[in-house]
Q: What sequence folds into this?
């Protein structure tokens, strides 16, 4: 035994103090390896649509309803199955309705409790008793464990269980118990959640989604470009702050900043009202939904234009600070001819829809006015001192990254930048070129430095690179040659609005390219997949999310309402359990109220991506590899105890 191994075993001996303790843990871990692997749930491009997100999370992309069908078959009606599913999804709200409308409440409690217990037995069957016990709500842990655990020593088990349920009802704890059981089912039906990027922007409730994720039992996040903009804003990047505020204004979601995060927009509103009071703002129309208060429309339009002009200035300053970004072609404010009201882009002149810019100095177009600098300073302080936003961003850093390798699958939001021939694109970051996995790693390093670095220079470089990750042509999560926000506002010719995608997106069916990407990230198994978000799959035009024979899955199907006309559906989710992988396409979600009152679930179509040849066990997972390593050291400790090289504590 070498010195390092001896230190490891001595440390382990503090936890497993003798032969009996080490032996018991080895037996326990070895048995866990032979359980079926837990169910993984993949979601992407949620874009603030919190109602649909919460519903899909509660129903496990249809997993809860499948468990109900498996458990009860034809023994209960379809109506009763719908009612039971709704109760599991929204127990508090459903109970309020039932308690008002049900004639025989005691019987309803009795039937519902029995059915919920049966479902819990089914969904918990592939977990160890220890894991289930950890998931149990504290107030009812003992009672639930009694109900779901077989008691062979009790002759009349049915009478025993019935008496437990009868007592729960008699003492008035049935509603609380039903809520606890329903939340437990939601917990157990999905073992681990993957969010493959873009939680923020477009929809009204990213802060609600983030609160949900912060409390979720097991989750990881692959950062999307929109997440990166918010993370950059939280770190203090002025360019990212301007982007976040502009997008919020554009989609009529300034209330997300003001009410959701408590960020004070009054300085911006005051500035916009004063500076843009006599300015044409028609090019900055608001895209709003039915919840938007149109009395704010005029002010929000002025704020939209004001922050957009500041964004273009700040981005120009940043591009000039970093010539290595190769983005000089985005310095468009320099290309405006104010006398002719035209702009020259790539050698071609276009008429501009708007040249009424009261804060732009024609000779120094990228200089902020004193008033603009004050507004941005106030916004920077508001973002950096917002406790809720900072908590959410710290969660994204702790649970996330630009990519993740999990159970033999590669997860990332955008793309691996490729040249037309399928080779990895080299991207200059600071003073060195990177490609493939190394590009992801260096960009993530700088993103973390932007938030956590104490050295101001290092932090500033990190913040600029965070903006580049959001919008740069070599960014894996942007995946576009350029973002044409400027052109969309100021030029009528739609040819200038095109955002050419990276060659990656034209090579998704090339097996050699896909295999090269997997190998670049250390995955060589035939069972490996890439799970991808970012670019909506246009199912309405016959496009399939399953690429390269199932090796690559693009699961962005339009969670965001802004994309649903384009995709024809309301999002994809991916479910991977011990038997295979299943892709679920969702119809638009009406509302939480309709789901409760009408007992309407999301209508979803399920497609089997892959059936595993043999059922996957915990032994086949990343957790299994960790368990095997623990067993290795525990067996070494056991041998050391037997040989007397490490002494037992009795």
A:
């Amino acid at each position: 035994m070498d010195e390092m191994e001896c230190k490891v075993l001595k440390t382990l001996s503090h936890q497993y103090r003798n032969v009996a303790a080490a032996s018991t843990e080895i037996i326990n871990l070895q048995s866990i390896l032979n359980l079926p692997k837990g169910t993984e749930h993949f979601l992407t491009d949620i874009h603030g649509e919190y109602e649909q997100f919460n519903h899909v999370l509660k129903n496990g992309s249809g997993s809860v309803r499948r468990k109900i069908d498996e458990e009860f078959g034809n023994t209960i009606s379809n109506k009763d199955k719908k009612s039971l599913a709704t109760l599991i999804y929204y127990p508090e709200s459903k109970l309020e309705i039932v308690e008002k409308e049900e004639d025989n409440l005691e019987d309803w409690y009795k039937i519902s409790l029995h059915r919920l217990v049966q479902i819990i037995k089914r969904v918990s069957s592939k977990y160890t008793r220890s894991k289930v016990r950890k998931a149990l709500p504290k107030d009812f842990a003992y009672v639930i464990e009694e109900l779901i655990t077989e008691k062979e020593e009790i002759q009349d088990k049915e009478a025993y269980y019935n008496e437990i349920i009868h007592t729960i009802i008699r003492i008035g704890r049935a509603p609380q118990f039903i809520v606890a059981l329903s939340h437990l089912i939601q917990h157990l039906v999905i073992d681990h959640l993957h969010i493959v990027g873009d939680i923020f922007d477009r929809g009204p409730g990213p802060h609600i989604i983030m609160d949900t994720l912060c409390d979720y039992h097991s989750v990881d996040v692959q950062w999307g470009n929109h997440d990166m903009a918010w993370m950059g804003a939280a770190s203090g990047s002025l360019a990212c702050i301007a982007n976040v505020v502009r997008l919020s204004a554009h989609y009529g979601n300034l209330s997300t900043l003001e009410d959701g995060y408590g960020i004070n927009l009054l300085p911006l509103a005051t500035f916009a009202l004063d500076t843009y009071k006599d300015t044409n703002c028609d090019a900055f129309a608001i895209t709003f939904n039915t919840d938007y208060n149109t009395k704010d429309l005029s002010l929000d339009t002025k704020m939209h234009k004001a922050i957009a002009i500041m964004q273009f200035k700040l981005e120009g300053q940043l591009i000039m600070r970093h010539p290595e970004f190769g983005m000089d072609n985005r310095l468009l404010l320099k290309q405006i001819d104010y006398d002719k009201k035209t702009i020259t882009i790539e050698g071609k002149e276009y008429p501009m829809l708007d040249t009424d810019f009261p804060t732009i100095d024609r000779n120094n177009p990228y200089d902020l006015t004193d008033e603009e600098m004050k507004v941005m300073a106030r916004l920077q302080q508001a973002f950096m001192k917002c406790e809720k936003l900072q908590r959410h961003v710290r969660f994204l850093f702790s649970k996330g990254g630009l990519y993740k390798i999990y159970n033999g699958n590669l997860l990332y939001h955008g793309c691996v930048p490729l040249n037309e021939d399928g080779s990895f694109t080299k991207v200059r970051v600071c003073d060195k070129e990177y490609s493939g996995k190394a590009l992801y790693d260096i960009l993530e390093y700088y993103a973390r430095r932007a938030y956590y670095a104490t050295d101001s220079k290092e932090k500033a470089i990190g913040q600029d690179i965070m903006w580049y990750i959001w919008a740069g042509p070599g960014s894996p999560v942007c995946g576009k040659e350029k973002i044409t926000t400027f052109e969309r506002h100021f030029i009528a010719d739609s040819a200038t609005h095109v955002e050419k995608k990276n060659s990656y997106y034209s090579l998704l069916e090339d097996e050699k390219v896909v295999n090269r990407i997997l190998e670049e990230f250390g995955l060589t198994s035939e069972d490996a997949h890439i799970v991808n978000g970012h670019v909506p799959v246009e199912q309405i035009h016959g496009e399939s999310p399953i690429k390269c024979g199932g090796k690559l899955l693009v699961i962005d199907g339009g969670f965001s309402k802004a994309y649903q006309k384009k995709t024809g559906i309301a999002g994809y989710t991916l479910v991977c359990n011990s038997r295979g992988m299943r892709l679920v396409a969702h119809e638009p979600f009406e509302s939480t109220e309709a789901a409760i009152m009408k007992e309407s679930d999301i209508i979803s179509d399920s497609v089997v991506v892959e059936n595993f040849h043999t059922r996957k066990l915990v032994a086949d997972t990343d957790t299994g590899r960790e368990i095997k390593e623990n067993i290795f050291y525990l067996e070494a400790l056991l041998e050391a105890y037997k040989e007397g090289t490490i002494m037992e504590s009795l």
The two ends are 23 Å apart (CA to CA). Residues 140 and 177 are 7 Å apart (CA to CA). Residues 297-321 form the longest helix (25 residues).
